[in-house]
Amino acid sequence: MTGRLAEVALRTNAAQAATSHGVAHSVQVAPITVAALITPKWLTRHLDVPSEATDVILPGYCDSALDDAVDPESPRTTWRMRLAEIAGLAPEKIVCGPNDCRDLDAWLGGKIREVDLTDHSIEIIAEINHAPRLSIDEVVRIAENLRADGADRIDFGCDPSRRCDRVGDYVKALIAAGHRVSIDTFDPHETRAAVDVGASLVLSVNSSNRESAADWGCEVVAIPDTPDDLDSLESTIEFLSRHNVPMRLDPILEPIGFGFGASLLRYVETRRRYPELAMMMGIGNLTELTDVDSAGVNMLLLALCEEFGVGSVLTTQVINWARSSIKECDIARRMVHYSLKEGVPPKRVSDQLISLRDPKLRPYSPEALESLASGIRDNNYRIIAQDGVVHLISAGVHLCGDEPFAMMSELLSMPQSSNVDVSHAFYLGFELAKAKIAAQLGKQYEQDQALQWGHLTVEEERHRIPRQSRHRKD
């Protein structure tokens, strides 16, 4: 069942869905313009179910009220039960479909099966750069935010140009706040102060400071003396092994332009040489030093780590385009773990890292769009964005363009614009701006809903114009 405006679109999508799933179907077009305005109570006067029907699919917007009591004094009878009586079917055969008829095929086939992204196998170490330049309270506050985004360990990044005599106080405060802490320094004095109060990992150790590592009593990250010198890494590994120092290996990821590809091969070689030892990858050299949004880069690097058996990553989020790297890594590590565990590509697993564009577009066909434009008889404004074009539709109005200012100027020059007051003009301007962004980027635009930016999406409250204006659908 649907309303008149969605008839053409529903008939098209229902026919395609019926063919895909091998079912017979019929469409009832209710005597109402907009399907979203259909209520279960209203349906008790208008539902007309063919005798051969086995199931009734109502518009998705009915869902919130379908199991409400018909009479508050008699809560055992719901609108679903009342509609089932009218249809001559069991109550469970009265169901609500998707809000948008273009999603009908996916809805009939069941939504994408539940994907459990609880598990992961990669530790995220979040570095606070130049931490001694901040107050202890600032460091703890930043650490709390990093943990909320998915960090498992906080790396206290020391200042190479100046020794921090209070490093112990910082680390003690972080541990008191419940954090696992690593210390990032080559200064033995800073390292000793940190491990004495509970730091459990030292970044990093090579031939310059490995002698001291034997006395720290904690795990260290072993690195080569220079990134391309795996022999120096081997020497440090042998020394640490002789002194029973627990370690993880980091052959050093190089930035693009400085041997990025070769450094990846060194991870492969290190894993081949030392299959039993833990490894770490510092991925900030790529995300922070590449002019590109960080989500895709983090996803690929976490995938490499999962495949190479690199059990931890060190990253930071200083540069603005990488400001959400910790959260991105948390999402990515779950996706790649699921992908390798299930033996499937990480597609249709999660849309949280799809920000610039959307996973799927649901454009209207030209026929459905034309039917919608010609079928509207009220003064409510509908906004549609697809194929790089914004459509503004109302009774006797169908404006198309990609520039909201020009569209509003044209609208206000038309006789039909007499119903556009100040508040409604603001609403239209706000929605047209969103529609322009969607059209420009190739995103799905839904009027009165937030654009989807993956894990960065901020849902919007439904915008309502005072009812006396009656200039838009409620």
UniProtKB/TrEMBL annotation:
<dbReference type="GO" id="GO:0004156">
    <property type="term" value="F:dihydropteroate synthase activity"/>
</dbReference>
<feature type="domain" description="Pterin-binding">
    <location>
        <begin position="106"/>
        <end position="337"/>
    </location>
</feature>
<protein>
    <submittedName>
        <fullName>Dihydropteroate synthase</fullName>
        <ecNumber>2.5.1.15</ecNumber>
    </submittedName>
</protein>
<dbReference type="InterPro" id="IPR045031">
    <property type="entry name" value="DHP_synth-like"/>
</dbReference>
<dbReference type="InterPro" id="IPR000489">
    <property type="entry name" value="Pterin-binding_dom"/>
</dbReference>
<dbReference type="Pfam" id="PF00809">
    <property type="entry name" value="Pterin_bind"/>
</dbReference>
<dbReference type="InterPro" id="IPR011005">
    <property type="entry name" value="Dihydropteroate_synth-like_sf"/>
</dbReference>
<keyword id="KW-0808">Transferase</keyword>
